[in-house]
DNA sequence: CCCCTCTCCTGATCGC
DNA sequence: TGCGATCAGGAGAGGG
């Protein structure tokens, strides 16, 4: 399940291999993969053709390629999206196929079809150029211009569970269910606590842990559980071997030994230590 | 405005 | 063996 570190791994792979290359062929196999491109598959195909990739960008879980035309090809991996370079052997979930002028195939493979491609204009927001569909997304904790104090200030006004806020991409981006649980475990805070009830140092610590855990994951090539996430070469990450909270229901807390629990909230699983991260009274 | 729930999708897995 | 139910969850639409 691609969150910031996994998306960044993909961006780096693309930056290393396709910048400067021209797109010489495009085929959309599944219209749902380009549903967010309002002008339709034919328009996307036509505008990608003969375009040169000039650079790459990322904010949170959004990734994009800048093109010679001035457009950005915005890619969201959703739950199971992959950007693959090279021959695709399993074509079952091949949604968009392109060819570059050096003969490399660049493919978008996505089993659950939550992800997709779209073309968009770039716009400058707060001094940083991002594609229009990304303009509403907050800076992520690995952004050099991430403003910890400003995000803490926002969180201090939220009458809402802290985990919900960590998952809200307009508050802080890049964090998904896995890294939210890891950050909260490191900070010893239960995700059901109300954000505004937490102190500034605690909120700042949670954000700091989010940055740390995502940097750690990035160093190991991202997290993967079921091979749905792979980098541009089709290799899985290794960070799942060092998760402290996510998926550890019934196992001992690595800090205190208490048995880790799983709760349902927001229709999602939350893994936490009942001793280190006690649930708030209702 | 703020907050929350629902919905989209496919495949693995589970219980009967 | 088969089949329906459940689960995984990012993010936007829409409701209260």
UniProtKB/TrEMBL annotation:
One example of a Gene Ontology biological process annotation: base-excision repair
UniProt GO molecular function: 8-oxo-7,8-dihydroguanine DNA N-glycosylase activity; class I DNA-(apurinic or apyrimidinic site) endonuclease activity; damaged DNA binding; double-stranded DNA binding; zinc ion binding
Domain FPG-type residue range list: 244-278
Residues binding DNA: 93, 112, 158
Domain annotation Formamidopyrimidine-DNA glycosylase catalytic: ranges: 2-115
Keyword Zinc-finger attributed: yes
Reactions accelerated catalytically: Hydrolysis of DNA containing ring-opened 7-methylguanine residues, releasing 2,6-diamino-4-hydroxy-5-(N-methyl)formamidopyrimidine; 2'-deoxyribonucleotide-(2'-deoxyribose 5'-phosphate)-2'-deoxyribonucleotide-DNA = a 3'-end 2'-deoxyribonucleotide-(2,3-dehydro-2,3-deoxyribose 5'-phosphate)-DNA + a 5'-end 5'-phospho-2'-deoxyribonucleoside-DNA + H(+)
UniProt-listed Pfam families: Fapy_DNA_glyco, H2TH, zf-FPG_IleRS
EC number: 3.2.2.23, 4.2.99.18
Cofactor (UniProt): Zn(2+)
Physiological role: Involved in base excision repair of DNA damaged by oxidation or by mutagenic agents. Acts as DNA glycosylase that recognizes and removes damaged bases. Has a preference for oxidized purines, such as 7,8-dihydro-8-oxoguanine (8-oxoG). Has AP (apurinic/apyrimidinic) lyase activity and introduces nicks in the DNA strand. Cleaves the DNA backbone by beta-delta elimination to generate a single-strand break at the site of the removed base with both 3'- and 5'-phosphates.
Protein name, as recorded: Formamidopyrimidine-DNA glycosylase
């Amino acid at each position: 399940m691609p969150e910031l570190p996994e998306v960044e791994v993909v961006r780096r792979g693309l930056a290393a291999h396709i910048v400067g290359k021209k797109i010489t062929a495009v085929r959309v196999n599944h219209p749902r993969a380009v549903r967010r491109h309002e002008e339709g598959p034919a328009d996307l195909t036509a505008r990608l053709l003969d375009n040169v990739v000039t650079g790459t960008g990322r904010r949170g879980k959004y990734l994009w390629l800048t093109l010679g035309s001035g457009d950005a090809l915005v890619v969201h991996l959703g739950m199971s999206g992959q950007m693959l370079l090279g021959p695709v052997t399993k074509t079952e979930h091949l949604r968009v196929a392109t060819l570059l002028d050096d003969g490399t195939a660049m493919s978008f493979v996505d089993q659950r079809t939550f992800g997709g491609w779209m073309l968009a204009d770039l716009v400058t927001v707060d001094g940083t150029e991002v594609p229009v569909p990304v303009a509403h997304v907050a800076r992520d904790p690995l952004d050099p211009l991430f403003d910890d104090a400003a995000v803490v200030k926002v969180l201090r006004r939220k009458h809402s569970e802290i985990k919900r806020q960590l998952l809200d991409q307009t508050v802080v981006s890049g964090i998904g269910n896995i890294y939210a649980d890891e950050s909260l475990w490191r900070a010893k805070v239960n995700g059901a606590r109300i954000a505004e009830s937490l102190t500034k140092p605690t909120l700042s610590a949670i954000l700091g842990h989010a940055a740390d855990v995502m940097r750690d994951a990035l160093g190991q090539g991202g997290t993967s559980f079921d091979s749905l996430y792979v980098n541009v070469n089709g290799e899985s990450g290794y960070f799942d071997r060092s998760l402290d909270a996510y998926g550890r229901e019934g196992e001992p807390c690595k800090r205190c030994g208490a048995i880790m629990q799983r709760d349902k909230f927001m229709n999602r699983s939350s893994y936490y230590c009942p001793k280190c991260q006690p649930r708030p009274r209702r």
